[in-house]
Amino acid sequence: MLSIHNFRLYGKIAFAQHLYNTAHRCYPYHMNTTLAQKIYLAVRLIPRGKVATYSQIAALAGNCNLRRYVGNALHKNPDNILTPCHRVVNAKGFCSGSFAFGGSQIQRQKLEAEGVIFTGNHVDMPRFCITHDDFEAMSLRMKEG
């Protein structure tokens, strides 16, 4: 911990570095490339015609509490063809907002093209969300690398 004595000794730069290090230990929402790569791998494993939730992808990447980080990583996805981010929806089955995929209806169109059926404005989750068996198989493939 940086004390007042150390602050006086090392000045503002050391204090700023301490704050940066503390924030990144406690609040891991900076883009960690290793975690982002795990997220992209998990998304690539979602079977065609199925969807997964942000929480499921976060759990596959190692921490089910990083749902927002998953959304952030998918928003910054460098390759939408290799990593089919359109297969990730929220827990209720709703698609992401209009900023993603080039418009609010694009994600829905991509999912419908894969055979996913919507009930109202959301995915029919009981039929099209990955099952526990799917999740376990994806988890094993994640561990294989």
Verbal overview:
- With 145 residues, this protein is mostly helical.
- The chain folds into 2 domains: 1-30; 33-144, Arc Repressor Mutant, subunit A.
- The chain has 7 helices and 4 strands.
- The strands form 2 sheets. The chain has a two-stranded parallel sheet. It has a two-stranded antiparallel ribbon with strand order 3-4.
- Helix 3 (54-61) packs across helix 4.
- The chain starts with a helix and ends with a helix.
- Mean pLDDT is 82; it is low at 22-30.
Overview features:
145 residues; mainly alpha; Arc Repressor Mutant, subunit A; 2 domains; two-stranded parallel ribbon; two-stranded antiparallel ribbon; 7 helices; 4 strands; 53% helix; globular
Main sheet summary: 2 strands, parallel
Quaternary organisation: single chain
Please give the CATH architecture of the largest domain: Orthogonal Bundle
Q: Order of strands side by side in the largest beta sheet?
A: 1-2
User: What is the residue-averaged pLDDT?
Assistant: 82
In short:
The chain is mainly alpha-helical. The two termini are 37 Å apart.
Please give the structural blueprint.
Elements: H1 4-26, H2 33-44, E1 52-53, H3 54-61, H4 67-75, E2 88-89, H5 106-113, E3 118-119, E4 122-123, H6 125-128, H7 132-144
Helix pairs in contact: 2-3, 3-4
